[in-house]
Amino acid sequence: MSREIIVFGLFAKLALLYTGTIWFPRFASPALTATLGWGTVVSGLIGVFCSAMIYHDTRRDFWHLRWSGLKFLGTTALLGTATVLLTSSAASLPGSVLAILAGLTSVFGLLKLATELPIFHSIQVEDYSPLHKTALLLSGPFGLLHRVRVALGLIGGVALPVMLFVQLSVTGSAPILAVQTAAILLLCLAGELIERRLFFTAVQPVQMPGGVPS
Questions:
Q1: Backbone phi, then psi, for 193, in 5-degree steps?
Q2: How far is C-alpha 33 from the geometric centre of its chain's CA atoms?
Q3: What share of the chain is helix, strand, coil (3-state, %, to 5)?
Q4: Distance CA 89, CA 68 (A)
Q5: What residues does each domain of the chain span?
Q6: Is residue 205 classed as helix, strand or coil in its secondary structure?
Q7: Contacts of 199 (CB under 8 A, 6+ apart)
Q8: Is 195 within 8 Å of 160 (Cβ atoms)?
């Protein structure tokens, strides 16, 4: 936990300084602005990694770094790109830039779903391992919620960005750009919030019921 606090504290300070150089460019050189920008990005990614490691250290299979790391970084990439897409459309950036952002959003949305679905391979192996029990929960008691999460991810993170990418690539503009970009971000956010709830509710402890907690 201390690593995460330190890194995110550094991230917040760098982000504040970087924002200041953007708002008041006469007080900072382009080199300093670029350095602060990259420092913000790197410290943010390290902070996300530290967050994933907090859950990895609990030794619960569903929170292993191979699951939590991809999920946390995937959420960062997806929501970050969707947010930039929305703000860029509000700033009336060129259609070519918006098309690239829409394409990246769809790629990240697809990859994010691809990191979540392999858990269901554990259903085929009836070894009653923690991952097997998690897969049963996601397909049974939490099945409806998980299907809603996948639907939100497919619509907001894949289908709508692809449609927007095609529109911008062909015509250079979109008739309801603000509505489309807002819908993409809101649907992606809703899907990620559900995914994170399932991340906490479907995890299974390592020890048997009644065992001595570590």
A1: -65, -40
A2: 26
A3: 80, 0, 20
A4: 31
A5: 1-57, 59-207
A6: coil
A7: 62, 63, 68, 71
A8: no
Max CA-CA distance within the chain?
64
Which residue type, as a one-letter code, is found at position 169?
Answer: S
13: number of Cβ within 10 Å: 14
Q: For the chain, give me the number of helices (H) and strands (E)? A: 8, 0
DSSP secondary structure of 122-191? GGGS-S--HHHHHHHHHHTTTHHHHHHHHHHHHIIIIIHHHHHHHHHHHHS--TTHHHHHHHHHHHHHHH
Q: DSSP label at 119?
A: G
For 90-111, what is each residue's pLDDT tens digit?
A: 998 998 999 999 999 999 999 9
Could you read off the pLDDT of 156-209 as tens digits, one per residue?
999 999 999 999 998 877 788 999 999 999 999 999 999 999 999 999 876 554
Backbone angles phi, psi at 83, to 5 degrees: -70, -45
Q: How many CB atoms lie within 10 A of CB 123?
A: 15
Model confidence at 1, pLDDT cuts 50, 70, 90, reads low
For 110-157, the pLDDT digits (tens) are 999 999 988 888 777 777 788 888 989 999 999 999 999 999 999 999
